[in-house]
Amino acid sequence: MKYQGGFETFKEASRYMFQPDLRDILLVLFGFVASLLVLIVLPYAISKYLANRSARRRFEVIGKQMGLNEEEISLLYKCASTLGDPNKVFHSKYVFERCAGKLVKESSDNIPIIVSIRKKLKFEHLPWFLPLATTRDIELYQTGFISYKGKSYGAAVWEKTEEDLKIAILDRTPEFPQPGDRVKFSFLREDDGRYYFEVEVLNTYLEGGKVILVIPHTEKLSKIQLRESMRWKVSIPARVFFFNRKVRTEELSLVEELPDEPFLEGTIENISTGGVKVCFKRFVSAKEGDSLLLEFEWKGQLFKNILAEIRRITVSTDGTCFGLKFLDLKKAYEDTIRKFIVEEKREALRAYKMDR
Question: What pTM was estimated for this model as a whole?
């Protein structure tokens, strides 16, 4: 009995001895959290800090190489630091314009700095072969149409600033938009497509008898692709034979008997897998829908006996130009033209980036 009583006493004492109180629980939790901080969170934070510091250093080095001062680098990094690759802002006009828009909206004091940065990065103009990404890319004096209350009026970009775009209405209007009214501006960009955007008018004023609309910049540009394939600007000597009628592909066997004299010497000014624009330095009589035969040499490759149809005719004091659509172009020719355009585009992009 004595042994049993002693065991019960020991058991009861142990239960009270190992029963944790609130302080013990908090101490254990604190130790656990501290371990997480030391073993996981702290190393991650340190590595993140070092990575950001390294990225900032690389950004500063590239910025200085491109002629930016410390103030310009610091401002640009505020936006670029949110990107996966901050240095992309130096080489992509699209990325730069997005950053510029944010910084200008943040404070008008940033405008002079943005203007200086754009000039130093040579982002003042967009190459013709790149599509527009923002209204800041629109060229000065670009003509188009302002649509308001169901009517359209001839218009042109009159002035550009970092904050807004000023568009002059060129036609007489019975009434013109007022601040708060919504208008649509549409325009055709040569060798690219038709663009349009809709915004709210910020202000209006008269200048030289013209109504000037002040509108905000926007990145919400809509585009209508006018051609199935992109046309690349070139200057390629070409020989053209005009049939002055429609011709089927099966009739081409007769062409081999034609003498050289009927072939006219011209120049291909743009080319795609779907057709070309060929120009002559004199008046050439032809009509839309007629067929012609085209041959030229490009990068050492001879393109011979290509049947094409006249789709557009432009006559000026400089001569006559024809927009042609290829008819049943050989697959080998199509692949080669596509390959050459891709090569030239890569070279142009490389040169564009090198200059920047």
Answer: 0.65
In contact, 310 and 323? CB cutoff 8 Å: yes
Q: What is the pLDDT of residue 91?
A: 85
Tokens of 53: 């510091």
Rounded to whole angstroms, the Cα distance separating 312 from 251 reads 23
- For the chain, the straight-line distance linking the first and the last C-alpha, in angstroms and rounded, comes to 98
pLDDT in tens, 87-128: 999 988 888 988 988 898 888 888 889 989 998 988 888 877
Q: How confident is the model at residue 262 (pLDDT cuts 50, 70, 90)?
A: confident
User: Long-range contact list for 47-53, CB < 8 A, 24+ apart?
Assistant: 52/81
Q: Which residue from 173, 172, 145, 149 is spatially nearest to 157, judged by alpha carbons?
A: 145
Question: Which domains, and CATH codes, for the chain?
Answer: 1-124 (no CATH), 135-224 (2.40.10.220), 232-352 (2.40.10.220)
pLDDT above 80: residue 79: yes
User: How far apart, in whole angstroms, are the C-alpha atoms of residue 262 and residue 285?
Assistant: 13
3-state secondary structure at position 83: coil
39 to each of 47, 51, 139, how far by Cα in Å?
13, 19, 56
Task: Give me the residue label for tokens 């209006």.
Answer: 204
Q: What is the pLDDT of residue 225?
A: 77
